[in-house]
Specification:
The structure is a single chain. The chain is α/β, with parallel strands linked by helices. The protein contains 8 helices and 8 strands; from the N terminus they run βαβαβαβαβαβαβαβα. Helices cover 36% and strands 16% of the residues. The longest helix is centred in the middle third of the chain and has 13 residues. The protein is globular. The two termini are 14 Å apart.
């Protein structure tokens, strides 16, 4: 099992979650409002999905489209609510207007997450300095993953960055696992796997009929089989 690559799939509701698990997803990222690139789901939505599947769930903490934290008091309240509902893993990441990590917002969330594991999401792809961001976040409790395409425009343009960052695995700031997502396609996998990357995140790729249709277990299974090959 230790050599098996992680496949994380975006789920909007229980139907998605059940289909993704059936197709071989290892973990789900729970969001609502995909038009805004994924916002925090309701407590009710989380509870329904938690009851429907038994794989790990990472819950998005974001109130508005973009990478600014916005109303951090409200976000902390939502995070507290989700923790009370049983959420144990999260996804978030905020930048200042200058493209630096918003440590104030991130640290306020970590304070209420109480040691939970979390992913710093694709805000890293918009950061002014990726290496500096990683070093600034290096000692934060619970941070175990970066969701990144290697470039703001997607994996096509970020392949070399992903390879270079994987090669630095274990250095200060480079201990968290890289979860590749953002314009990821099946034809990227051989090169990424050869570089040692072992965690992959899909959204639209799990929905051949678009975001208005549910996750397709068959589409997820194609990715599972490609990763296991």
């Amino acid at each position: 099992m230790s050599n098996r690559a992680v496949l994380e799939v975006i789920a909007l509701d229980e139907e998605d979650a059940v289909a993704a698990q059936a197709g071989g997803a290892d973990r789900l990222e729970l969001v609502t409002d995909i038009a805004a690139d994924g916002l925090t789901p309701s407590r009710t939505c989380f509870a329904a999905i938690r009851a429907a599947v038994d794989i790990p769930l990472r819950v998005m903490l974001r109130l508005t489209d973009g990478f600014a934290a916005g109303d951090i008091d409200r976000l902390v309240a939502r995070a507290t609510e989700l923790r009370e509902a049983g959420a144990e893993e999260f996804v978030f990441g905020f930048l200042t207007a200058d493209g630096d990590p918003d440590l104030v917002a991130v640290e306020r969330l970590i304070a209420v997450l109480d040691g939970c594991r979390w992913t710093f999401h694709r805000a890293i792809d918009r950061a002014g300095d990726r290496d500096a961001l990683r070093k600034q976040l290096a000692d934060l409790p619970g941070l175990d993953t970066y969701l990144t395409a290697g470039a703001a425009t997607g994996v096509d343009d970020g392949l070399a960055v992903l390879e270079a960052e994987t090669a630095r695995s274990g250095e200060p700031g480079y201990e968290p696992r890289i979860l590749v997502g953002g314009g990821l396609r099946l034809d990227h996998l051989p090169r990424l796997r050869a570089a040692g990357l072992d965690a992959f995140h899909i959204g639209g790729a799990a929905r051949p009929n678009g975001w208005k249709a549910p996750v397709s277990p068959d589409a997820v299974r194609v990715w599972r089989e490609a990763l296991d090959a």
